[in-house]
Design goal:
heterodimer; A: 414 residues; alpha/beta; five-stranded parallel β-sheet; 29% strand; globular; B: 106 residues; alpha+beta; five-stranded mixed β-sheet; 2 helices; 5 strands; 22% strand
């Protein structure tokens, strides 16, 4: 389907993938109508600082925004904020918005993102029970981040642990509840889980694993305690839930576009409807280095898919696809992750967790598939390249700190 | 405030007004300077905001911290005047700064 003559492009969603797609379309020479429809009242902004520097109050709001308002005007990008897209009429190629407005499109980009999984228990609707996903969420949480208050964080994933680090640094009494036997269980190996547990515990965070929440109790409408499955009760002034996110795929699904834990796309971001594309958290894409489809919740993925979709619509060559990568900041630790470790059969450790500078490499059938690097950029960057080339490498060599990562990358056989 | 000039690898120049306290990367992103990707938004996590600093400003842009040093060690086409633009904070002293962007950030 050649869409290079498109004159009306609509982007549903106003996050990182949407902003990137809009920018890449204009940079690629697209001169037609371009409309972004965003549910939130804010122009597109960065999300990672929301659980890091911005939450801590170390970053101005202005610095969160990808572009100032003038940029959208200068680039003739219409941004409809505080507006929800309600329905896609694929036959008429129209996107319906709330209050009856209708936008025609030649190409529609679904960059609808994701939403936090809601706490499924009684008391989840009490005051001072929060999600952490949007700027508005942080505005609600931040005034409550007062030294001495008790915060209970539900879920020990990256969001939960990043928030725990911020809260502890701000002097709150922090408890993290996790149903699994270890923190970050869904995303990393036992060695990394143990490291982060040790770090948080040393900073005074209480981490309760194998612990399920039963419900929340309140007093005068505000949360007062988290009650655990064993009946014990933790007093709480505020609760933060970080129990995963769900793709916003309903708009596509209701229109009959193929979805399976995300809106299914081809390598160019095209959905089962050739006029409709999907990018970012909401999309499930072919992961070229891993031979399967998947949904990635990351900045890198949003940027890359934004670029891929723009190129596909313009009929431009497909941009190179990089190895998936992520990062997390907790206290003074920088964790950099390259690749996807799911399905590894061997771990090689390099450096010393005790020195807070080390990396865990993940291999499958002798091929490097992922790395978790703590305060170790060379390990991260070298691995990123080696994963892309499908490098086969002996775990003993990865563990040998007398050989530099540059030498290892040079020796790795593709 | 400082005027910063970004020179692309093919010689195209773009000059922008940048605010004190912002980074050279942020000023580039806000003004859509091509050649600076800055995928991590300034967290010093990605090395995609690599620039070459004009020699006249090398002693004014500050020095590299350990993290930046090792990130640059793995960037492509690194030179003696290479920096990550997210780590250069704009101040009046940088008025007139010229940086050149590499052909590719990968």
């Amino acid at each position: 389907m050649d869409l290079s003559g498109a004159e009306k492009i609509v982007i549903a969603g106003a996050g990182q993938a949407a902003a990137q797609a809009a920018q890449s379309l204009r940079q690629g020479g697209y001169a037609g109508e371009l409309i972004i429809v965003g549910e939130e009242p804010a122009l597109p902004y960065q999300r990672p600082p929301l659980s890091k520097a911005y939450m801590k109050g170390e970053m101005d709001e202005e610095r969160l925004y990808f572009k100032p308002a003038a940029w959208y005007q200068d680039n003739k990008i219409e941004v409809l904020l505080g507006t929800t897209a309600t329905r896609i009429d694929r036959a008429a190629r129209q996107l319906h918005l709330q209050h009856g407005a209708v936008l025609d499109y030649d190409a529609l980009i679904l960059a609808t993102g994701s939403r936090p999984r809601a706490l499924p228990c009684k008391g989840a609707d009490l005051a001072n029970v929060h999600d952490l996903r949007t700027l508005a969420d942080v505005e609600r949480i931040r005034p409550q981040m007062v030294s001495g208050r008790r915060i209970v964080i539900i879920g020990a994933g990256y969001i939960g642990l990043e928030a725990a680090a911020v809260a502890r640094t701000m002097g709150l009494d922090v408890t993290v509840l996790e149903m699994a036997p270890r923190v970050l269980a869904r995303v990393t190996s036992p060695v990394m889980s143990e490291f982060f547990t040790t770090e948080h515990t040393a900073k005074g965070v209480k981490i309760l694993t194998n612990t399920a929440l039963s419900h929340l109790e309140g007093q005068d409408g505000a949360v007062s305690a988290a009650v655990l499955a064993d009946g014990s009760s933790l007093p709480a002034d505020l609760i933060l839930a970080g129990i995963g996110i769900l793709p916003n795929e309903e708009l596509a699904k209701d229109a009959g576009i193929a979805c399976s834990n995300g809106i299914l796309t081809d390598r160019d971001g095209r959905t089962s409807d050739p006029h409709v594309f999907a990018a970012g958290d909401c999309a499930s894409r072919p992961l070229v280095h891993y031979g399967r489809a998947g949904r990635l919740e990351s900045v890198h993925n949003a940027i890359e898919q934004g670029k891929l979709v723009a190129a596909a619509i313009l009929g431009a060559p497909r941009p190179a696809e990089d190895c998936p990568w992520f990062w997390s900041d907790q206290y003074d630790l920088k964790l950099q992750i390259a690749g996807l470790s799911t399905g590894y059969d061997t771990i090689a450790l390099r450096g010393d967790p005790g020195e807070r500078k080390f990396a865990a490499f993940y291999l499958r059938n002798g091929t490097l598939i992922a790395v978790d690097a703590v305060n170790s950029p060379p390990e991260f960057l070298a691995s990123k390249k080696m994963i892309m080339t499908g490098a086969r490498i002996a775990p003993e060599m990865l563990s040998d700190t007398s050989i530099s990562m540059k030498e290892i990358a040079a020796k790795a056989a593709a | 405030m400082a005027k910063i000039t970004y020179v692309s690898h093919d010689g195209t120049e773009r000059t922008v007004e940048a605010k004190n306290g912002e980074s050279v990367m942020e000023a580039a992103i806000k003004n859509s300077i091509p050649g600076i990707d800055a995928d991590c938004g300034g967290a010093c996590a990605c090395a995609t905001c690599h620039v070459y600093v004009d020699d006249a400003f090398m002693d004014k842009v500050g020095t590299q911290e350990e993290m930046e040093k090792s990130m640059l060690d793995f960037a492509e086409n690194v030179k003696a005047n290479s920096r990550l633009s997210c780590q250069i904070k704009i101040s009046d002293a940088l008025d007139g700064l010229r940086v050149t962007t590499p052909e590719s950030q990968h």
